[in-house]
Write a structure and sequence with these properties.
The chain has 315 residues and is α/β, with parallel strands linked by helices. 43% of the residues lie in helices and 10% in strands. It has three domains: 62 residues, no CATH class; 58 residues, DNA Binding (I), subunit A (Orthogonal Bundle); 180 residues, 3-Layer(aba) Sandwich (Rossmann fold).
C-alpha cells in the first residue's frame, strides 16, 4: 500500500468515526459546515467544537503520518545520556539490529514498540500479499505454479511447494527452450516484496550478461508458491545443465525484501542440499540488485565451466 493510499484509508476511517460521534450534524465531506469555509485549517463552531472537512482531515493525516520503518524515524529511537555516545553511534551504523533503543521501566519505549510493530507488519505483508502480476507482464515472465493451491497450503505444506503442478509441467514442455546451458527463473518463496523490489534491476543484468558471453539461456518464468527444491523439478523438466532460481527469502525485522540466488549444477529431484551454491542478502540495503546481477554472471559461468556447485566448488 502506497503512502497516498494509506492516507486515503486513514481519512475515510477518521471521517466515519467523526460522523458516528456526531461532531457536526450538518457535516458533508468536502463541503463547508454552516458559514465556515472549507479551506479553514481548523474551523470551529460557536460552541468551540471543531468542524472537520474531508480536506482538513486528509491534510492532517498527510502532515502527521510518518513511515515508522524508515531509517530517519529509527534514528530518533535512542536512550538518553549514553556513557559513550560515539561508540554507540558507531555500533548502530554497523548493524541493522536494534541496539541503543532504550527502555521505559521494564518495557520498550513507545517509539521502539511502534517501530517493531511496523517492521513486523511489513514482514507479514511480504509473505501474505500476492505477487504483482503487472510486474510479471512487464518483465515478460509467464506465471506457473507449484502444487500449492493457496498461501495457507504454501506455508504449511512445503513438500507440495517443492513439486510442480501438472499445468506447470505442461507449460515448461510446450513453451520453454529445452536443454539450456543455464536455466534462470524467479519465484516468490517467502517474500513477494523481494520480487517486486529487486527483480527489475537484477534479472535484465543477469540475462543480458549471460547472453552477451554466448551462453544458451533457457526461457525465464515465474513460479508461484515455490520453494528452493522446486528448481530440481524445473531442471528435470527442461533438461538444464545448470539451474538458478532468484527467490524471495523469509523476511525478518531488518529486511522484508531480501532475495537469494540458489544455484545447482546438474540438479535432480532429491539432490543433497550441499550441492547448492547460494548468493544471499540481495536488497537495497545489502548487495545491490544490479551488483548482484553482474556478480551472478561471473559465478554462473564459473560453475558451468567447472561443472560443480555447492561444497564441491572452491570459491
Amino acid at each position: 500500500m502506497t503512502r497516498e493510499q494509506l492516507i486515503e484509508q486513514i481519512t475515510a476511517q477518521v471521517l466515519a468515526a467523526l460522523k458516528e460521534q456526531g461532531v457536526s450534524e450538518d457535516f458533508v465531506p468536502g463541503k463547508p459546515v454552516g458559514d465556515v469555509p472549507v479551506e479553514a485549517p481548523v474551523p470551529q463552531h460557536s460552541t468551540g467544537t471543531p468542524v472537520f472537512t474531508e480536506a482538513s482531515v486528509r491534510e492532517l493525516a498527510s502532515d502527521t503520518l510518518k513511515d515508522l520503518t524508515e531509517a530517519e524515524y529509527k534514528d530518533t529511537i535512542q536512550f538518553e545520556d549514553p556513557e559513550n555516545p560515539l561508540a554507540l553511534r558507531a555500533m548502530e551504523r554497523s548493524t541493522t539490529a536494534r541496539v541503543g533503543i532504550g527502555r521505559d521501566g521494564e518495557r520498550l519505549t513507545t517509539k521502539a514498540m511502534l517501530s517493531l510493530r511496523a517492521d513486523h507488519a511489513m514482514a507479514k505483508d511480504a509473505v501474505l500479499k500476492p505477487v504483482d502480476e503487472g510486474l510479471l507482464e512487464r518483465m515478460d515472465l509467464p506465471l506457473i505454479q507449484s502444487k500449492c493451491e493457496d498461501i495457507d497450503t504454501h506455508l504449511t505444506r512445503p513438500d507440495l511447494g517443492r513439486q510442480l503442478s501438472d499445468e506447470a509441467k505442461a507449460f515448461l514442455q510446450q513453451h520453454c527452450e529445452k536443454h539450456p546451458q543455464i536455466q534462470v527463473y524467479v519465484s516468490d518463496g517467502l517474500s513477494n516484496s523481494a520480487v517486486e523490489n529487486n527483480i527489475e534491476d537484477l534479472l535484465p543484468i543477469l540475462m543480458d550478461g549471460l547472453k552477451a558471453d554466448g551462453i544458451r539461456v533457457g526461457t525465464p518464468f515465474f513460479v508461484k508458491y515455490g520453494r528452493v527444491p522446486t528448481m530440481d523439478a524445473v531442471s528435470e523438466e527442461v533438461g538444464a545443465e545448470l539451474t538458478c532460481v532468484l527467490l524471495g527469502e523469509r523476511p525478518g525485522l531488518a529486511a522484508s525484501d531480501s532475495m537469494s540466488a540458489y544455484i545447482t549444477y546438474g540438479a535432480y529431484v532429491g539432490i543433497p542440499e550441499s550441492k547448492r551454491t547460494v548468493v544471499s542478502n540481495i536488497h537495497q540495503h545489502g548487495i545491490q540488485p544490479v551488483e548482484a546481477g553482474a556478480y551472478l554472471v561471473e559465478l554462473l559461468e564459473r560453475i558451468l565451466n567447472e561443472q560443480k556447485s555447492g561444497v564441491d566448488l572452491q570459491l
